[in-house]
Amino acid sequence: MATLVRAGPAHAAVLTALHDSAFDSAWKEDAFRTLLALPGVFALIVLDSSEQPAGLVMMRETVDEAEVLTLCTRPDRRRSGLARRLLREAFRSLDNSVTRCFVEVAEDNAAARALYESAGYRTVGVRAGYYETDRGRIDALVMVLEGANGNQLQIA
């Protein structure tokens, strides 16, 4: 069974290693430390059955909105349900007043798009050339999940 750990600035090296395993352009340790020191920002790490970090989610919460800053799993742990579990647990950590959550997803990241769409997110915009990758600049889809009738968020 996977274990969840609330991450703080002291976990920056672990978060960076996970992020680097999942993305072309990984965030640096200073970025994680700086973000986690901000009000309303939190991160969760999921540990696999051997107690090794297998994935992370970082969220920012402000009044009635939230944003998934990053969500990833190690490549060898993809398609195992860890990303959905991280997202679900992150939503449980949000204040009850949060009724809308945004995320930006690389247009060519079919797996992430499928995860968010299956959770109830819908695309509401595009940020042209938002991500810089080894393959060039990639557009980001801006997606949103809204609570029904202004209610607290739940993922499908």
Quick one: overall form?
A: globular
What's the story with the biggest beta sheet? 7 strands, mixed
How many angstroms separate the termini? 22 Å
CATH superfamily: Gcn5-related N-acetyltransferase (GNAT)
- Mean pLDDT score: 90
User: What is the CATH architecture descriptor?
Assistant: 3-Layer(aba) Sandwich
Q: Indicate the percent of residues in helices.
A: 25-40%
Number of helices: 4
Strand order of the largest sheet: 1-2-3-4-5-7-6
Q: H/E element string?
A: EHHEEEHEHEE
Low-confidence stretches: none
Supply the number of structural domains. 1
Structural class: alpha+beta
Properties at a glance:
single chain, 156 residues, alpha+beta, Aminopeptidase, seven-stranded mixed β-sheet
Task: Explain what this protein looks like in three dimensions.
The chain is globular, with a radius of gyration of 15 Å. 27% of the residues are buried. The longest helix has 12 residues, at 82-93. It has a single domain (3-150), classed as Aminopeptidase (3-Layer(aba) Sandwich), CATH 3.40.630.30. It contains four helices and seven strands. The chain is α+β, with helices and mostly antiparallel strands and 156 residues long. Strands 1-2-3-4-5-7-6 form a seven-stranded mixed beta sheet, with helices on both faces.
